[in-house]
Amino acid sequence: MTKKGKANSWRTLSSKEWNFLLNREGKCNVGNVEGVNGLILLPDDFKSPGQKFWLSKWGWMSNKYTAEQWMEMESAGAVFLPAAGYLGCFFMTVVDLNERGDYWSSDDDCEGTRRARRIHFDSQDEYTDCLPKVARFSVRLVQDVLK
After folding, report:
1. Which residue has the higher pLDDT, 84 or 7?
2. CA of 137: how far to CAs of 30, 56, 69, 104, 105, in Å?
3. How far is Cα 146 from Cα 74, in angstroms, rounded to an integer?
4. pLDDT averaged over the chain?
5. Residue 142: how many CB atoms within 10 A of its CB?
6. pLDDT value at residue 53
7. For residues 103 and 13, what is the distance between their CA atoms, to the nearest angstrom?
8. What is the pLDDT of residues 35-81, one digit of tens each?
9. Prediction pTM value
10. How far apart are CA 78 and CA 71, in angstroms?
11. Which of 32, 35, 117, 144 would disulfide-bridge 105, Cβ 3.0–4.6 Å?
């Protein structure tokens, strides 16, 4: 059993941590959970909780789960990041909801520019790049786990 870290210890992943998670063979893919598209990350020691729970083909519908199936995946350590789109500059509306995910890293990993590293995924690809800090993307909070 693991214990959670101290109170107020939530943080955003660094670009180095994002790169580690995204570049592990067979541990990162997109999928769909109950109609919501997103990025699926598996732990290194992932043990599939049943049959046909993970396919290597990239695409929202290549890895499709019911709520019950996803609860089993989550219990086995899988993490789901929804394709939450981004907040558009005009009219402050969400753009590309359920079509793409854009998440910030915590650090300025862009050669001292006024930009920050973004993690992007959609139904065809995932990549990182540098964009102005004024862009309105999602963040994923994490907490270090003490063993």
Report:
1. 84
2. 18, 27, 28, 6, 10
3. 19
4. 86
5. 15
6. 62
7. 10
8. 999 999 999 888 888 756 666 678 898 889 999 999 999 999 999 99
9. 0.85
10. 9
11. 117
Structure tokens at 87: 């907040």
| Tokens (6 digits) for 76 | 């086995």
Among 114, 121, 110, 125, CA closest to 14? 110
- The neighbour count for residue 60, using CB atoms within 10 Å, is 19
Q: What is the 3-state secondary structure (H, E, C) of the chain?
A: CCEECCCCCCEECCHHHHHHHHCCCCCEEEEEECCEEEEEECCCCCCCCCCCCCCCCCCHHHCEECHHHHHHHHHCCCEEEECCEEECCCCCCEECCCCEEEEECCCCCCCCCCEEEEEEEECCCEEEEEEECCCECECCEECCEEC
How many Å apart are CA 27 and CA 32, to the nearest integer? 16
Banded model confidence at residue 134, pLDDT cuts 50, 70, 90: confident
What is the residue type of 107? D
Q: What is the CA radius of gyration of the chain?
A: 16
Interatomic CA distance for residues 10 and 48, integer angstroms: 28
Residue bearing tokens 């870290």: 5
